C-alpha cells in the first residue's frame, strides 16, 4: 500500500503466484505417486497413495506457511513471501480438503453409519481422524476469512486472533499424524516427519524471538525530573529506520529517524502496531516519507499517524523532543491520527 496504491481484487502477480503454487503441488503429487510406483505399491492401493500424497503435500505447505513469519523477522529477504502468504494458506486448505474428502470416501463411505459421524468412532484405539477433522474446520475458518473484507469487517485484533488459530490447528495435525501412525503395524516415516517439523518450526520461532531483524526492543528510562522518558541518543536510530521501546505492559513505541523530501532529518514516535494485521511497524522503514509496515506495505504519515488517502487507517502518535543528543518521549499516547509536529534535528542533513 502507498499513496499511489490502487486497491484491486486480483492482478497479474497474484495469478502468477497462484499458478506457481499449483504447479508445485502438481509436481509434488506426480513425484510422490511415481516414487510409490517405483517402490512397488499395489495397483489396488492407488487411492491410498493419492491420499498420502495429498496429506504430505498439505503438511509441507503448512510448514512453509509457519516458517515464513519467523524467517521474515530474521531477514528482510523473506518479506516478499509474507505478502502473499494468505494465497498459500488457502491453497494448502484446498489440498487438505481433497485429502479429507478422499479419506472419508475410502474409509467411511461404504458402511451404514453416516460418513461424517463415523469419523468420531472409527480409528482403532484412538479416533485420530477426529483430530484431523477439527484441524480442517479451523483451517476452513481461516481460509474463509482470508480476505481484506473480513479484516476490515472483523477488525485487525479479532482477525489476527482468528488466524493465530493456525497454531492449535498445527498441534492437532501433529497429534493426528502421530496417533494415526500408532494404529499401523509399520509406523513408517510419519512420526519422523512430524518430529522434524516440530524441531524446524519451533526452532525458527525461538530464533526469531531471540534475534529480531531491523530493530531491537529497548526499555525506556524515566527522567528523574519530569514525566518524559529518556530513550536514546538520536545517532543510535538508523536513518529511515526505527528503534522499538517498551513502555508499560505490552505497549511498544516505534521511534523513527528519517529524512523528509526537503532533506531535513526528523524524529517521530508512533505505535508499533499496524492497524492492518498488527504488524510490527518498527521493523519497517520510511519510504517516500511514509512509515511502511514490513508485513504488507501499509503506510502511515509520521506527522499524524494517518494513512494517505484514500485509506483511512490511523495509529496513535507520541510527543517527542530532542535535548542535546538525547531523544525524550512523553509516554501518554495521543489519539490515533492526532496531528502533532515532528521534531527536526537542527543542522542534521
Task: Offer a quick outline of the entry.
Helices cover about 45% and strands about 15% of the residues.
Question: What can you tell me about this protein's structure?
Answer:
By secondary structure, this protein is of the alpha+beta class. The protein folds into 2 domains: 199 residues; 128 residues, 3-layer Sandwich (Rieske Iron-sulfur Protein). The protein is built from 10 helices and 13 strands. The strands form 3 sheets. Strands 1, 4, 5, 6, 10 and 13 form a 6-stranded mixed β-sheet that branches. Helix 9 runs antiparallel to helix 10. The radius of gyration is 25 Å and the shape is elongated. It starts with 11 loop residues before the first helix and ends in a 5-residue tail after the last strand. The N terminus is likely disordered.
In one word, what is the shape?
Answer: elongated
Helicity level = 40-55%
Low-pLDDT residue intervals, each spanning 5 or more residues: 1-8, 213-217
Helical segment count: 10
Task: Please write the string of helix (H) and strand (E) elements.
Answer: HHHHHHHHHHEEEEEEEEEEEEE
In whole angstroms, how far apart are the ends? 28 Å
- Our Rg estimate from Cα atoms comes to 25 Å
- Provide mean pLDDT, rounded: 83
Care to count the β-strands? 13
What's the number of domains? 2
User: What would you call the structural class?
Assistant: alpha+beta
**In this structure, how is the largest beta sheet organized?**
6 strands, mixed
Beta-strand percent range: 5-15%
Amino acid at each position: 500500500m502507498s499513496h499511489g496504491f490502487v486497491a484491486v481484487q486480483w492482478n497479474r502477480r497474484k495469478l502468477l503466484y497462484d499458478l506457481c503454487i499449483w504447479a508445485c503441488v502438481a509436481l509434488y503429487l506426480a513425484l510422490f505417486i511415481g516414487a510409490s510406483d517405483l517402490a512397488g505399491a499395489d495397483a489396488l492401493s492407488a487411492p491410498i497413495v493419492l491420499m498420502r500424497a495429498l496429506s504430505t503435500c498439505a503438511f509441507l505447505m503448512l510448514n512453509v506457511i509457519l516458517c515464513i513469519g519467523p524467517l521474515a523477522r530474521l531477514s528482510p529477504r523473506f518479506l516478499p513471501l509474507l505478502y502473499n502468504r494468505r494465497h498459500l494458506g488457502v491453497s494448502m486448505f484446498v489440498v487438505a480438503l481433497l485429502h479429507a474428502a478422499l479419506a472419508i470416501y475410502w474409509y467411511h463411505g461404504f458402511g451404514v453409519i453416516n460418513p461424517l459421524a463415523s469419523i468420531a468412532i472409527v480409528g482403532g484405539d484412538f479416533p485420530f481422524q477426529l483430530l484431523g477433522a477439527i484441524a480442517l474446520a479451523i483451517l476452513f475458518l481461516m481460509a474463509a476469512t482470508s480476505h481484506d473484507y473480513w479484516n476490515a469487517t472483523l477488525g485487525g485484533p479479532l482477525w489476527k486472533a482468528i488466524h493465530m488459530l493456525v497454531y492449535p490447528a498445527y498441534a492437532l495435525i501433529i497429534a493426528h499424524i502421530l496417533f494415526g501412525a500408532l494404529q499401523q503395524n509399520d509406523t513408517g516415516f510419519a512420526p519422523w516427519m512430524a518430529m522434524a517439523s516440530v524441531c524446524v518450526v519451533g526452532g525458527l520461532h525461538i530464533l526469531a524471538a531471540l534475534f529480531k531483524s531491523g530493530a531491537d526492543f529497548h526499555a525506556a528510562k524515566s527522567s528523574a525530573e519530569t514525566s518524559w522518558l529518556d530513550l536514546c541518543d538520536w545517532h543510535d536510530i538508523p536513518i529511515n529506520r526505527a528503534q522499538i521501546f517498551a513502555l508499560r505492559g505490552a505497549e511498544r513505541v516505534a521511534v523513527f529517524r528519517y529524512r523528509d523530501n526537503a532533506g531535513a532529518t526528523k524524529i517521530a514516535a508512533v505505535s508499533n502496531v499496524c492497524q492492518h494485521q498488527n504488524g510490527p511497524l518498527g521493523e519497517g522503514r520510511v519510504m517516500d516519507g511514509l512509515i511502511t509496515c514490513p508485513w504488507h506495505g501499509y503506510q502511515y504519515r509520521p506527522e499524524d499517524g494517518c494513512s494517505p488517502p484514500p485509506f483511512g487507517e490511523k495509529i496513535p502518535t507520541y510527543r517527542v523532543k530532542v535535548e542535546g543528543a538525547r531523544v525524550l518521549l512523553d509516554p501518554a499516547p495521543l489519539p490515533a491520527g492526532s496531528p502533532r509536529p515532528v521534531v527536526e534535528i537542527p543542522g542534521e542533513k
